[in-house]
Design brief:
The chain is α/β, with parallel strands linked by helices and 217 residues long. It has one domain: Spore Coat Polysaccharide Biosynthesis Protein SpsA, Chain A, CATH 3.90.550. Helix content is 23%, strand content 27%. The protein has a seven-stranded mixed beta sheet with strand order 5-4-1-6-11-8-12. A two-stranded antiparallel sheet has the order 2-3. A hairpin with a 2-residue loop joins strand 2 and strand 3. The longest helix is centred in the middle third of the chain and has 13 residues. The radius of gyration is 16 Å and the shape is globular.
Length: 217
């Protein structure tokens, strides 16, 4: 399996820190978010990682290089100043991700979550790892019922930013900037998303307050 780490975002809510440091290189307890993910996927037996680049992407390349120091082959998907959002970024990288299901991780999450180990039996096109909705959110994203991700008017669970997708999930998409969330909603309605609940350490490092909380002993 190939992994893709989404690292192109600007990190507006972490400014001014992210004026000089790409969000994925923000450090928690002395290690950057991105490098933590690289080590975790290596330890799971993954050999190749695709990292998309946008804001301050050259600093990511300078730090990570070929990936050899992490025991990985790291390939970069360049987006430049035209960051493509989650859906568009994955779609652009599809030629690098192969024909088999691939792992996607949002670089700005901090977690001890193991890499999901699951097959995608037809008609399932994706598998999402869900977490309990954190207190700072008013509502969740989805629910889980009978192993499937479902839309619900009162959703109890939050998408962790860790998922496995078949390349076919992106059939019919067109190159350019587009979000992933509407595609997930549609697939959930069609019964095409499986899921699991992870109830261990997890945080979305989207604000300075959450970064500070994650850095506390």
């Amino acid at each position: 399996m190939i992994a893709m780490i989404l690292a192109a975002g600007r990190g507006e809510r972490l400014r001014p820190l992210t004026d000089e440091v790409p969000k994925s290189l923000v450090e928690i307890r002395g290690q950057s978010l991105l490098e933590r993910h690289l080590e975790n996927i290596r330890d799971a037996g993954i050999e190749t990682a695709v990292v998309n680049l946008g804001w301050l992407g050259e600093k990511i390349v300078d730090r990570v290089g070929s990936g050899s120091r992490y025991g990985l082959d790291v390939i970069y998907s360049q987006e430049g100043d035209n960051v493509l959002e989650t859906g568009g970024g994955i779609y652009k990288a599809l030629p690098l991700l192969g024909r088999d299901p691939f792992l996607v991780i949002n670089a700005d999450v901090y977690t001890d979550m193991p890499v999901p180990d699951t097959g995608l039996a037809a008609p399932v096109l994706g598998h999402l790892v869900m977490v309990p909705t954190p207190d700072y959110r008013e509502h969740g994203d989805f629910d889980l019922r009978d192993g499937l991700v479902r839309n619900d008017a009162v959703a109890r669970l939050t998408f962790s930013g860790v998922a496995i997708y078949r390349p076919e999930f992106f059939m019919g998409c067109e190159a350019g900037r587009f979000p992933l969330a509407p595609m997930l909603r549609e697939a959930a309605d069609a019964g095409q998303l499986s899921g699991e609940l992870y109830d261990g350490p997890w945080a979305d490092i989207g604000t300075k307050a959450r970064l500070d909380a994650a850095n506390r002993p």
